[in-house]
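Sharing a chain and its predicted structure for anyone who wants a worked example. Both blocks are below, sequence first, tokens second.
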Amino acid sequence: MSSGTVGGGGGGAGSSSSAGGGPGGAGSSSGSSSSNSNTNNKKRLATLNGIPTSVDDKTNDFLCPICFDIINEAYITRCGHTFCHQCIARSIDVAKKCPKCNYPLASHEHIVPNFLLNELITKHRLKGGGGGGGGGLLHRHKSSQPGDNSPQFHTGGTCGGGDANAGGEGDTLKHFLATESKKLSLSDVNVMLEILTQRKTLLEAESCAAQNRLLHEFLKHLLKQKEQQQLQIANEIALIRSDLLDVEKVLKDVQSSCPTVAEVEQSVRDEKDEHVVAIKREIIQIIDTIDNITVPSNRSLVDDTCSNVTESYEGFNLHGARRGGHGGGGSISGGSLSSNPSSFLARKQRMYQHFDDFVQCYFAARSEDLYFGKDRSCSSDSLGVGERSTSSGASIGTGTGIGGGSFSSDRLMGGGVHPSAAAAAAPSNASSQSNLDTTRSSGRSSLDTFRESLIKFSKYSALRPLATLNYSNDSNYVSTIVSSIEFDKDSEYFAIAGVTKRIKIFDYYTAIRDAAVDINYPINEMTCNSKISCVIWNSYFKQVLASSDYEGIVTIWDVLTRTRTKTFEEHDKRCWCVDFNEVDTRLLASGSDDARVKLWSLNVDHSVATIEARANVCCVKFNPKSSCHLAFGTADHCVNYYDLRNLKQPLCLFKGHRKAVSYVKFLNTDEIVSASTDGQLKLWNINSPPFCLRSFTGHINEKNFAGLATNNDYLACGSEDNSLCVYYKGLSKQLFNLKFSSSSTSGSGGTGGSSAAGTGSSSGIGNSSSRTSGLQSTDMERSNSEGNEFVSAVCWRKQSNIIIAGNSEGVIKILEIVCGPVKAGQTRIFWELGKFPAVAVAGLGDASKWDELDEIDGAKENVRIAAAAGVRALSANKIAEIAVEDMEHPQQAAEGATLANYKFQAFKSKEKQTPLPAVSFAEDASGKADWDRGVIIAEAQNFARVLMETPANHMTPTIFADTVKHRLGAANVEVVVHDEAWAKEKKMGSFLSVTNGSNEPARFLELTYRGSQDEQCVALVGKGITFDSGGISLKPSANMDQMRADMGGAANVVSTILALAQLKAPVHVKGFVPLCENMPSGTATKPGDVVYAMNGKSICVDNTDAEGRLILADALCYASTFNPKFILDIATLTGAIKVALGDCVSGVFSSNNKLWETIHEAGSQTGDRVWRMPLFKHYSDQMCDHNGYDLNNLGKGKGGGSCTAAAFLREFVPKGTPWLHVDIAGVMGDCSDQSYTGSKGMSGRPMRTLVEFVTKAGSA
């Protein structure tokens, strides 16, 4: 038996012999066949803990003589030596000779590829001889076969380790058993079996442990992650519950402040007046609506959520009006839009469509409270988690309760901590309560911010095309890309420019009106020498426009004359953009491929400054509220923000885009939006650089300049799928998407389609030229290569919801963002409906008959407002003829339409006058007589507006009298004009004292309309100061020009009698109008002078600026001689009445309660309300001075100026004569409460109230 032992030599129990034949191994058995092996092939000893294969030989056949690694990309020299290409190339560059034989190698042309060797090396690597490009060890291994005594070559292993060499050892063992097993004794076999069994058990245990150890690590990490998520969700739920309770409290407060349905129903049963019953029925409907909105406290939040989701998708379909063309006429219809849940349902559906986006927006807005601000109901102890990490990696403690580790951060973004934020120490317990109050206040603020975003996002429902134009109607142009679209300062005209080298000017209103015409011609056109990249209008000089082109030239144009007024040619390369400063309107900037931003002035022939950028400048934009701040985007992916007072370095450098920045626009003074060819828009704040506030995605933009425009909170940009995308700044996803139709399928571009949130109507795709952008200057080329159509230019009409967009085929679309139901006083125009090319639908609002708080007939007033809004909307679109429906109140519809269709332009040249449309009553409507009555009254009020608006030198007392005589004489009103001699004869010293200082002679009008046979007349007296300078007591110069309308009382009297005569009202009316000017001169009345009125009373003139009461005193005395039923005087008498009542109501002083009730009712019906003022004896006492004369013309007390003026006038009305005084200084002009008379200019109020009052009181 052999003397060798098995498993000896330090192999240890359970270890097998090394295949290399370690000491005591199988290979050491005496007399074995291995003793006959060649000594050169003897297996090397394994090194304890050594590096495997480190003692193996490397083959020298494929080694590079330079790097001593397997040759990679073999190249052979002229001298016949082979090296790696990289190695020999470097050697030639440095030494110019062969590294082995020093043979001269002057250049790379002296080496060629060694194809044969490359093939051999590839085959060698495929056999496993070498690793990837760096070479490796050559492994040799031959499978041992029974009876084969050949040695085994392999990478060495460790002694008894059970490693990767087990396969080789197993082969050796098999060989041993096949050749030597007969020599083993029973004890040897038992020892071997025991060792192998133990070895098997250990191997199985090791494998099982390795597998479960990995699973354990996975589960441990997963548990930690889910616990972190559980904590996050718990905190989010606590925040949501808190906010939900806050909102429910608001809704319950609203509900509790309203009467219950039962209370209103009980009052309905007790009420007999049918009008009041109708009002209360509507109140019940409103209460039901409020009750439906509020969430009962006993309902499950989960149930509420599920029901809301279900409701939002049931029975809802949003219809959009199709847009056709325009014509020459239009129609206005009204719709009563009372509390209707459809608007809320529409908004709710849009909210659910973007629910996930709103979730992100909500947590972004509430992140400060989520992580640092509010006490959470669950703690780290209950969850078993000590801390968690935000997305930015900052560790945040879970004890966010007060006194338990509250943290703060400079800025929170998207639900995580901003990279610049750092955790701060927890506040002390002493300051916990104040921090809690601050936190709650901050929470309400952030919740309000999110509420605002939710409302603004859901405000609009669709994009509606209004018109389609074409940049080039000439088919000879290969490319018709629209590069730029811009509105002028008044948004009347817009310019379109592009690669056809033409700038075309269109009239916006004409384009809308003529939308049905296939070809729309510009009103003006300029031609450039090169392709145009950008145009911009000056914000002050209406006719000035600037352009930049591909030759690097900036051109200033006079649009009216179509001429170049200035040319700047300092850019070395193509100029991409130009922009005017809106504050310093002579300053402009341009950016170019020469990596420069140049500043120009309209007063200088060369650039005034230059900013050196680090890359191509793609866009420039001035801050709209600053003269010295400028932003520009560059091809190095950055947005630069400069202060022009320091051009050495930018104030801010915004980084975050991955490709060139193609557009930069300002949302407001502090927020910038940038567009890039990385397919993103980014929102930045200049006060918190350099971090991006939000990224907007959803459009496609990889290589083209696709357009960008902003309008306060909304953004619009083009996309390379030939669509327009609209975003709201508070949400990253699209608000709307409208697809342009390909010209190959729809002629001039079609009308397109729109839908919410990125779902657009599909259309064909054709070919067009493209304007491309990239990182390098060659990529920046807006080339004319063939490609898919894309929207290339976008412009937002200022302060409106109108967008104009153009694409690479030259198709231009005028679009409107429309919202839900039309609100009261708002309009929406629909085109090509029935026989009308344009129909304006106006909201009528609440249909309540009476507004108790405002003391006005709400239904009638809403009709006036709606009719006025419709007329203005159609007139703005230059509709020439407008027909108005009755809207259930034809007279009020006529009043609103006629008063809105007014514009004072008597002193404009004919070519500059705005043509007004012809407004008529709809043919198929009922109530023509009421309509005609409304037109008569409104036209009479417009006559008063003209009298008041006309400049004083064109409306002297004489001209006023002649104008009235001509106009009222045609209406069968008797007009008598008295001169100063007549006034002296009547002893009107008070009246004549006012005209002493003027060269214009005074006049006194006596008007008579006899619509009934009554002997007693109604007397109307109107103050007629055609210009009031204040006399010797001179007024301040500010706003003195408005004193041309100080005869507003006279204008009201004249227009009232005109309307009564045209209406053939059954009343007998006389009007008395003293006319004069109040001017300073050597003959003017002086303060302290005493004059005598017609009734003999003496008056001390304390202030010559209180002249209106002086002329009214004599007029009242003269009117009293006719023994009238009552006297009403009206005057722009005191500024104090405007202080007391504002500009929405006239003040009335009356000695007769019945007359007051009648005029109050008349004001409520006509919308021109009046308010009763006190007329106490206390005010009369202030006007009397017993030191030698009867009256002062100025009160001696403090305040109450309008009351003392009325008390002065009462002294000239005989006792027992019913009398009213109406002070209209507050409503004279620039009134904000009536949209149909406009907020600017003279109003002619309250003439309609006088007509209603005289008709009722005079015929009683």
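Comments welcome. The longest strand covers residues 460-470.
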